[in-house]
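agent: user wants the full assembly modeled, not chains individually. Plan: 1) parse entity lines 2) check alphabet per entity 3) run joint structure prediction 4) return tokens. Steps 1-2 passed, two entities, 224 residues total. Proceeding.
--- entities ---
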Amino acid sequence: ETGVTQTPRHLVMGMTNKKSLKCEQHLGHNAMYWYKQSAKKPLELMFVYSLEERVENNSVPSRFSPECPNSSHLFLHLHTLQPEDSALYLCASSLGQTSGNTIYFGEGSWLTVV
Amino acid sequence: TQLLEQSPQFLSIQEGENLTVYCNSSSVFSSLQWYRQEPGEGPVLLVTVVTGGEVKKLKRLTFQFGDARKDSSLHITAAQPGDTGLYLCAGGNYGQNFVFGPGTRLSVLP
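--- prediction returned ---
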């Protein structure tokens, strides 16, 4: 238990569906992240939020839409995904946004797009 | 763009053997972290090193940060099946997000 909880743990969706991934952190951190982990690539940083404000968006397709309603919650809204978007999506948090802070990961949400 | 390479990509050994995995970059990092990710779980931080030449020990795991802060190694003594997992290194510089390597996938057979 790292203090970062992700739901659902597994999700199968069709290319025309709309679904959301949810992340909640219980650590009092100010920064939250979405990472994508697939078999053939290193961990890819998708979005960074610091104090509920998006500070980084690493050229992620618009079919992925993040939302950070408060410092404890982070969502990733998914729509019209492609099969190549199938991957493990990891949420993480840290005390601050820069690399001087330890990143704590959730257990991930396994996404399969059919 | 800062990149981290890890070697070997895959490693399968017998219980009780020793091993070393490497994390290399052409860039200098102010800190470097090692994570272990077990199947079906998220990465868990093992150690952070910040000083060139620094050596840290965590039970049977020994971590070293290169003198030039461009590389790091992780040595495991007497590996156990519980050490099985994906070992990730991540390099950071002040004001920037961490960069992750592709990982070394370790399998320790009983």
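agent: reporting back. The longest strand of chain A covers residues 18-25. Chain A touches chain B at residues 2, 4, 6, 33, 41-43, 45, 48, 56, 90, 92, 97-100, 102-108 (CB under 8 Å).
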